[in-house]
């Protein structure tokens, strides 16, 4: 059975439209079949099976429509079922093959685009690291002089004002930790040290306000022998002291750090009452910076969730922690 009847020498507009639509149908459903089979996420790969059936059944339906229109409008011709199936197979194959070629061309350009995107992310990360190094060098301007001054203030105030001396010691510990060169620890910080740094920040702020600010810090789980990206949690804590309403003793700001050893994840949650004055002008730069860091570090910011309801603001950050022998970039 040849395809002469399907490409009649005389031009008939309805017939040409049917043929054209059948070609488009086979081409694009075949491409969709290949896309879901090879490029779609695992949970969507099963969509390829109905798409293949749609491709073939659609081609078959267009062939039947062609036969019907041709018999009604032009000349009656009898086609056997075998001839129709042969024609469907031939047409489907003819336009399935170009769809395969088109698929691989698209796949090639998608791969090139992904490589370009990864290179751009690498350049951004290198720029961020260079900026961090520059900031670190600027912060290192004679740090020993600052430590010596703080130690002097501590020794001078220890007898007369032990509360002030303790605050000075906390400030000294915070500065020392902030200037830590984490490249020596493969880009990661001890979770215990991060938590201690957060505790120092909370305690120092309580000293500032005579222990009257309603902020609680709760640690759930074992923090030993675990490492995380440094200073990622600190931004959320700083946001509380910048944007929360800490004058209302009845609305306590809560900081919770939960270590899930089964999933090897850390869940860091902050809940606070919003300051109505600051909330109206805040640009959310802290949250935005965290999202950017998460994308650079984990290729996704899905681990950060914010809930803004009524006068309460909640942030939950879920990130993996690392074992002592792991590095940030393998």
TrEMBL record:
Transmembrane region(s): 20-39, 51-69, 84-106
Cellular compartments per GO CC: membrane
Coiled coil (UniProt feature): none
Top-level taxon in the UniProt lineage: Bacteria
Organism phylogeny: Bacteria, Pseudomonadati, Bacteroidota, Chitinophagia, Chitinophagales
Domain (Signal transduction histidine kinase internal region): residue spans on this chain: 133-213
One GO molecular-function entry: phosphorelay sensor kinase activity
Name of the molecule in the record: Histidine kinase
InterPro entries: Bact_2-comp_sensor_kinase (IPR050640), HATPase_C_sf (IPR036890), Sig_transdc_His_kin_internal (IPR010559)
Keywords: Kinase, Membrane, Transferase, Transmembrane, Transmembrane helix
């Amino acid at each position: 059975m040849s395809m002469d009847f399907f490409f009649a020498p005389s031009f008939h507009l309805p017939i040409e439209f049917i043929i054209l639509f059948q070609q488009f149908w086979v081409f694009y459903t075949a491409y969709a079949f290949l896309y879901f089979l090879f490029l779609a996420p695992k949970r969507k790969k099963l969509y390829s099976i109905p798409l293949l059936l749609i491709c073939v059944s659609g081609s078959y339906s267009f062939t039947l429509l062609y036969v019907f229109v041709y018999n009604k409008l032009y000349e009656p011709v009898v086609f056997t079922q075998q001839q129709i199936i042969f024609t469907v197979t031939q047409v489907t194959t003819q336009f399935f093959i170009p769809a395969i070629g088109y698929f691989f061309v698209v796949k090639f350009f998608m791969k090139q685009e992904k490589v370009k995107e990864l290179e751009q992310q690498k350049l951004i990360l290198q720029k961020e690291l260079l900026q961090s190094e520059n900031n670190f060098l600027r912060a290192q301007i004679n740090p020993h002089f600052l430590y010596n001054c703080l130690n002097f203030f501590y020794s001078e105030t220890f007898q007369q004002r032990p509360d002030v001396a303790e605050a000075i010691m906390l400030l000294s510990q915070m500065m020392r930790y902030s200037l830590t060169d984490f490249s020596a620890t493969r880009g990661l910080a001890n979770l215990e040290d991060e938590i201690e740094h957060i505790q120092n920040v909370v305690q120092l702020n309580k000293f500032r306000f005579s222990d009257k600010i309603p902020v609680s810090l709760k640690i759930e789980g074992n923090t030993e022998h675990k490492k995380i990206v440094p200073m990622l949690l600190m931004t959320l804590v700083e946001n509380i002291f910048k944007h929360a309403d800490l004058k209302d003793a009845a609305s306590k700001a809560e900081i919770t750090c939960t270590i899930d050893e089964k999933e090897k994840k850390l869940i860091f949650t902050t809940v606070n009452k919003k300051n109505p004055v600051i909330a109206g002008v805040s640009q959310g730069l802290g949250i935005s910076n965290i999202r950017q860091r998460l994308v650079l570090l984990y290729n996704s910011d899905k681990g950060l969730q914010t809930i803004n309801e009524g006068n309460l603001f909640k942030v939950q950050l879920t990130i993996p922690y690392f074992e002592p022998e792991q590095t940030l970039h393998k």
